[in-house]
């Protein structure tokens, strides 16, 4: 009796977590497919301009043209196709910038929090100094120096955001380092670095995964912001931020140019953060 | 019989970070003050005292989780007081420890099998899976528990895993630090009976740290009473309970609530 | 005439069928000390929490009644219930470290109850707090009232919690494992203090503990719990002399006694656990069909 009913309460919590997890994973999955298959599924050439087709409304509105599902912008470019191609850039930035930031920040945080001593002093000071820079100014400065482009955006995100991982992972590693299973590994004769990798890392991994998914969302936003202020890649290439910037100017004549990329951006960032929450619970063997 | 452990004039102090001045180093607090005793092979030594008595610190200095600031710890005749981690590594197989809180001493992300196997692999044992099974058998846990996570076990079962991990290495000495204080009486009785059996069967020497004199009396042949970092009494268990010499020992004995409504407190 | 009367109280984990308490009935007379004993997860501290109306949000009461001083608590609207409980009952918590707010001085933490619940003027409450601290043998109450919790020892903090539990002159106090975190020598002082205060104020006490030794020293009657069900309710003397239930006998056999080193410790045998679980299952069935 007691043994089987003990799981009742947990399975209910899990079902709700599961729904959020699946919805956000679903959206991101659709986005990944869209990005991969963009050349085949995009109904139009995202760069093709045709002033005669300018500011066409979405298909369900009066005056729409077939084939331009979500309408066109002022230059006659297909909004849906541009969103699909824009997903490519957004996801590349999310994956590459997110993983690099995570790798660098989490490694430094782990070393600082577990090895302590002078390693911690050096890394902690670096974090403190780093965080004193205003991040937006810092990124604009970086890109101004390096010049706009994909690599610059990714570098800017990594350089600014590694502290986010380092701080949290350091605190978590310190807390785990005080647990008896670390002392027990020492009694067993395990070395410091080996203990860090086999005992501490698995316990901070859920935190890292949550941070990573959040960071991917942040990377998407930062890329959009930089595109919005025209510091991203060349203006011709479709980016969500660039589309939002263009849509802003014609909001009264053609709302769809602004709204569709905005909603896509919103859903993507939301999905990343919800995915992080959901994964955290999945990773926890106590809740599983 | 030869002494397995010999502790001579042991001192240990730690920096008191709560009183650290803005500049300069923190003042040190003396946790162990001139502690000396010998632990013969095959004996079960009880170490008792209140919180802040230094009993856990003494234990951790014996298995060299802490480095003493003065005096000597001899293990099997070898001075291990100031050995560094690399020099200690080959010795570590020979002295093991069981921790108070099995929930925090078992890594929640490793399965029971991995937990018992990890020290074996580190020390280069050949037949690791067979030894894991043997250790589980020894502590009376079903073999399929190797695939479980610590949180899936009860408190008593977790503490058995802690014991299995320690004995799997076939050590000569085990330090048990308050290992039954978080357990219900029934699990406590099981773990104590198990430990007693294992000590006989495997020819272990045991140091058993506890705040509970009833448990010490049940298990130990000799008792050290610690008070504020110093030994106030070191006696055979029967003598200590029959005729406690130190005032603090008497106070400890008087304070035990005997499960008997007719024995009223003075 | 019983001051606290619990009848057929059942509770479960919210939204599930997992039982926390099974048809618990017990009575505590005015001025009586009643022990609730059992192993972890037996539901002993849930009873105390149910009486004080501080059950965790994940636990819901499914049936039964709690009568405090002749008032049926569960039939009262929540605000009225909180007011009644606040005026008649108090808690001595388990962990003296977390039960006091670390960033506030002791004085206001003791007087808050008097000012907020009984509406006393602050000056009068402070005088009373000083008296109370002296009553629990705290030297220099004036200084302690100005101290922060971290400046005091564990035993001292527990004394303060006892003083503040008695402050509003409650008729019932729930003590939830009040000495588990303390050294034996301090435990003895604290238990004697609780007994002394209880006798002087004539307060009924519901004493939750896992330690049969402690029960034998402070309680007059007790209920033994397993799986949220009362196995045996009797006087302390009868429990230790002639325990009626098999589980009670097994629990006593597993408890070490330093006066009797020859006695072997016997863990609660599997057969006893099986019998107890069968008893609970039969009881659950009779509830479902009856």
TrEMBL record, chain A:
It comes from the Bacteria. Pfam families: BPD_transp_1, OppC_N. SUPFAM superfamilies: MetI-like. This is ABC transporter permease. Coiled coil: none annotated. It is found in: Cell membrane. InterPro entries: BP-dependent_transpt_permease, MetI-like, MetI-like_sf, OppC_N. The chain crosses the membrane at residues 21-42, 89-115, 136-160, 204-233, 254-275. It is a multi-pass membrane protein.
TrEMBL record, chain B:
The keyword Ion transport does not apply. SUPFAM superfamilies: P-loop containing nucleoside triphosphate hydrolases. Keywords: ATP-binding, Nucleotide-binding, Transport. CDD domains: ABC_NikE_OppD_transporters. GO terms for molecular function: ATP binding; ATP hydrolysis activity. This is ABC transporter ATP-binding protein. It comes from Tabrizicola oligotrophica. One of its GO terms (biological process) is transmembrane transport. The keyword ATP-binding applies. Belongs to the ABC transporter superfamily. Residues 12-253 form the ABC transporter domain. InterPro entries: AAA+_ATPase, ABC_transp_ATP-bind, ABC_transporter-like_ATP-bd, ABC_transporter-like_CS, P-loop_NTPase. It holds the Pfam family ABC_tran.
TrEMBL record, chain C:
Its main location: membrane. One of its GO terms (cellular component) is plasma membrane. It is a peripheral membrane protein. It comes from the Bacteria. InterPro entries: AAA+_ATPase, ABC_Ni/Peptide_Import, ABC_transporter-like_ATP-bd, ABC_transporter-like_CS, P-loop_NTPase. Residues 4-252 form the ABC transporter domain. GO terms for molecular function: ATP binding; ATP hydrolysis activity. Keywords: ATP-binding, Cell inner membrane, Cell membrane, Membrane, Nucleotide-binding, Translocase, Transport. PANTHER family: ATPASE AAA-TYPE CORE DOMAIN-CONTAINING PROTEIN, OLIGOPEPTIDE TRANSPORT ATP-BINDING PROTEIN APPD. This is ABC transporter ATP-binding protein. The lineage of its organism: Bacteria, Pseudomonadati, Pseudomonadota, Alphaproteobacteria, Rhodobacterales.
């Amino acid at each position: 009796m007691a043994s089987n009913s003990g799981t009742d309460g947990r399975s209910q919590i899990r079902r709700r977590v599961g729904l959020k997890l699946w919805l956000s994973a679903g959206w991101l999955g659709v986005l990944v497919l869209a990005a991969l298959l963009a050349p085949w599924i995009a109904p139009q050439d995202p760069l093709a301009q045709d002033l005669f087709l300018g500011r066409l409304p979405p298909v369900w509105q009066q005056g729409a043209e077939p084939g331009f599902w979500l309408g066109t912008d002022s230059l006659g470019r297909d909004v849906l196709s541009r969103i699909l191609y824009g997903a490519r850039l957004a996801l590349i930035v999310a994956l590459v910038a997110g993983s690099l930031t995570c790798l660098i920040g989490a490694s430094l945080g782990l070393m600082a929090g577990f090895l302590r001593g002078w390693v911690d002093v050096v890394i902690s000071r670096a974090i403190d100094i780093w965080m004193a820079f205003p991040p937006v100014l810092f990124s604009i400065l970086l890109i101004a120096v390096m010049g706009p482009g994909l690599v610059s955006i990714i570098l800017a995100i990594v350089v600014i955001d590694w502290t986010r991982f380092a701080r949290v992972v350091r605190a978590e590693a310190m807390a785990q380092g005080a647990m008896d299973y670390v002392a027990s590994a020492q009694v067993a004769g395990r070395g410091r670095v080996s203990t860090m990798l086999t005992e501490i890392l698995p316990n901070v991994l859920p935190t890292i995964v949550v941070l990573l998914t959040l960071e991917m969302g942040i990377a998407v936003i930062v890329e959009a912001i930089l595109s919005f202020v025209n510091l991203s890649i060349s203006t011709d290439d479709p980016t969500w931020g660039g589309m939002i910037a263009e849509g802003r100017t014609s909001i009264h004549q053609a709302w769809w140019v602004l709204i569709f990329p905005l909603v896509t951006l919103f859903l993507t960032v939301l999905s990343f953060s919800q995915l992080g929450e959901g994964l955290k619970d999945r990773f926890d063997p106590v809740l599983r | 019989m030869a002494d397995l452990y010999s502790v001579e004039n042991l001192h240990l102090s730690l920096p008191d970070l709560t009183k650290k001045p803005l500049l300069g180093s923190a003042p040190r607090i003396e946790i162990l003050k001139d502690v000396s005793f010998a632990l013969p092979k095959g004996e079960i030594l009880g170490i008792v005292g209140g919180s802040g008595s230094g009993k856990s610190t003494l234990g951790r200095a014996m298995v060299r989780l802490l480095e003493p600031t003065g005096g000597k710890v001899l293990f099997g005749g070898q001075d291990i007081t100031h050995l560094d981690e690399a020099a200690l590594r080959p010795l570590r197989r020979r002295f093991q420890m069981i921790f108070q809180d099995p929930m925090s001493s078992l890594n929640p992300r490793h399965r029971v099998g991995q937990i018992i196997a990890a020290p074996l692999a580190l020390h280069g044992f050949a037949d690791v899976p067979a030894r894991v099974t043997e250790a589980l058998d020894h502590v009376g846990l079903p073999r399929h528990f190797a695939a479980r996570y610590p949180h899936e076990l009860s408190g008593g079962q977790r503490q058995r895993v802690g014991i299995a991990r320690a004995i799997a290495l076939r050590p000569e000495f085990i330090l048990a630090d308050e290992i039954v204080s978080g357990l219900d009486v029934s699990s406590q009785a099981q773990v104590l009976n198990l430990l007693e059996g294992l000590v006989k069967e495997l020819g272990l020497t045991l140091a058993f740290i506890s705040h509970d004199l009833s448990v010490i009396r049940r298990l130990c042949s000799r008792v050290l009473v610690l008070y504020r970092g110093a030994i106030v009494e070191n006696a055979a268990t029967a003598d200590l309970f029959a005729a406690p010499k130190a005032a603090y020992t008497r106070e400890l004995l008087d304070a035990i609530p005997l499960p008997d409504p007719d024995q009223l407190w003075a | 005439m019983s001051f606290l009367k619990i009848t057929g109280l059942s509770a479960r984990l919210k939204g599930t069928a997992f039982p926390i308490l099974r048809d618990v009935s017990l009575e505590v007379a005015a001025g009586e000390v009643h022990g609730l004993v059992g192993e972890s997860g037996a539901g002993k501290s849930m009873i105390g929490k149910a009486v004080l109306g501080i059950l965790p949000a994940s636990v819901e009461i499914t049936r039964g009644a709690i009568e405090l001083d002749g008032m049926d608590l569960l039939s009262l609207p929540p605000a009225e219930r909180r007011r009644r409980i606040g005026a008649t009952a108090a808690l001595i918590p388990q962990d003296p470290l977390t039960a006091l707010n670390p960033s506030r001085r002791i004085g206001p933490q003791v007087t808050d109850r008097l000012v907020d619940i009984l509406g006393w003027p602050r000056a009068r409450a402070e005088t009373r707090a000083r008296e109370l601290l002296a009553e629990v043998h705290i030297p220099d109450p004036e200084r302690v009232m100005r101290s922060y919790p971290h400046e005091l020892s564990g035993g001292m903090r527990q004394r303060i919690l006892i003083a503040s539990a008695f402050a509003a002159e409650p008729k019932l106090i729930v003590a939830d494992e009040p000495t588990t975190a303390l050294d034996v020598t301090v435990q003895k002082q604290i238990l004697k203090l609780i007994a002394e205060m209880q006798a002087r104020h004539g307060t009924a006490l519901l004493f939750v503990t896992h330690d049969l030794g402690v029960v034998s020293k402070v309680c007059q009657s007790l209920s033994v719990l397993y799986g949220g069900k009362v196995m045996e309710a009797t006087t302390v003397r009868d429990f230790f002399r002639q325990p009626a239930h098999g589980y009670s006998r097994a629990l006593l056999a597993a408890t070490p006694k330093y006066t009797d080193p020859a006695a072997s410790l016997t863990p609660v045998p599997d057969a006893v656990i099986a019998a107890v679980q069968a008893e609970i299952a039969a009881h659950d069935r009779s509830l479902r069909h009856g």
